[in-house]
Amino acid sequence: MSQQDWRKSVVYQIYPKSFNDTTGNGQGDINGITDKLDYLAYLGVDYLWLTPVYQSPMNDNGYDISDYYQVNKLFGSLDDLRTLISEAHRRDLKIMMDIVINHTSTEHQWFKDAYNNPESPYRDFYIFKKSKGKGPPTNWQSKFGGNAWQQETETDDYYLHLFDVSQADLNWDNPQVRKELHRIVKYWIDFGVDGFRFDVINLISKGAFKDSERTGKEFYTDGPHVHEYIHELNRATFGDTDLMTVGEMSSTTLDHCLKYTQPERQELHSVFNFHPLKVDYAGGDKWTNASMDFLQLKEILMDWQVGIYEGGGWNAIFWCNHDQPRIVSRFGNDATEALRVQSGKMLAIVLHMLQGTPYIYQGEEIGMTNPNFTSIDQYQDVEAINAYKSLLERGVSEAEALIILNQKSRDNSRTPMLWNDERHAGFTEGEPWMDVNHNYRHINFQQAMEDPNSILQTYRKLITLRHQYDIVTYGDIEPLYMTHPELFIYRRNYEGKSWLVIANFSEHSVPLPESLNIEGAVVIANSELNQRTIEGYGAMVIAQEEKWEKESE
């Protein structure tokens, strides 16, 4: 695949457990994805990113892998996956696998052999350290809450788990670990997949094991050998193939992301960073009842857009994924149906006109909202349940804790896909593993297909524009009016052409700046300008060159 091909691509993320159930057990499966390939081809995307489908005890919904070479029976079989890949390829769709190689499940055979056996050859596959006095080796905090070290049952050694206690960090400083991980990646390349999303890949190199004045992340984020190890992974596995790769980067920096993605460094094609999705944290704390800082959102997005572009790297751009709340509830407005549709289209236009590879998370394209659960019993995610307990311990009321979870929980995006207005939204004939959104009767795929003015049709149009016009992929980005409190305005420039993007992030109509030139042809819009005023949650793209011709209907 040429650079041009993958850079013009759009990726659709599938959370298999919640996508489509063909067995009636209440959980989605691989055959359920195969059954919906025609829909995904209709949408127009190029890659399908599957969150992990490997063997796993599912303590962290598959991100705790116990066997990298087997498919979880909950999702199907290796033969089912082969069929999915074959049927996807028949429709010019590519399959991107999500792979977790910072840590394994404690149910993995490597860890089971290493645990309580200091003489095991697999002991050095993980990070075991002696107790410091009567406590853990360091005060590092797990990203899921609590200390990041767990003591063995028979010794005073502790193993490191930056995430759940059942997710033991691998020791990448051991060359044998790296060889085994290379072997796993090559297995899936030979299996026929078309790309990889590497989970928290910038955490693989740990530095000094010292106490921290914060949470410890300064000792393992973008660690001392991370670029060396990713380059080695590239050279040993996918580097000379046409696979597309993207790395999830936790608490990273622009400088490191340039290094991860500059082609001459031979590391990764693109990176996710999450800084724009922390603008509704209060004082850096996710678990707070806080609203979006709009100016900060613009500043972070544009700093990364300009910085990555000028440095020769590449962004992965996204509003949603399996770890983030629904964007239309978060940065848009789902108070009424009209506001949901209008703000959903606006957010789509803003994102898909940015520079980078866009990712769409299942249901985003039909404007799915947060489910607004009313009881902690409806939540499934270990992080959310731990956060709820922590909030109560801090004196937060149950009602306020639920409001916070309704805003920030990862479960907001993990509810079943809404296919139609029938029982359980057509997701399953059984009882779904998680409650279906209550508004499924008027927000579902079937309704969106039948409505020519739906959010879905806006996404289809945006994907088509990216495929057809190089300015969307290769144009530079020029931030405009960055201090405007309600409007997000930027320009894309390429080979003497210019596209102007205007979006109103407020509920009310807003006049455009007097100095803004809006002459040109409208490429896509969810509203019209009335005397240089853009309506609430309005957005438009204006081509400002003489020879641009609107795509024929």
From TrEMBL:
Principal EC category: hydrolase
Protein keywords: Glycosidase, Hydrolase
Gene3D superfamilies: Glycosidases, Golgi alpha-mannosidase II, Oligo-1,6-glucosidase, Domain 2
Gene Ontology molecular function: alpha,alpha-phosphotrehalase activity; alpha-amylase activity
EC number of this enzyme: 3.2.1.93
Domain Glycosyl hydrolase family 13 catalytic: residue ranges: 13-414
GO biological process, alphabetically ordered: oligosaccharide catabolic process
NCBIfam families assigned: PRK10933.1
Family affiliation: Belongs to the glycosyl hydrolase 13 family.
Protein known as: Alpha,alpha-phosphotrehalase
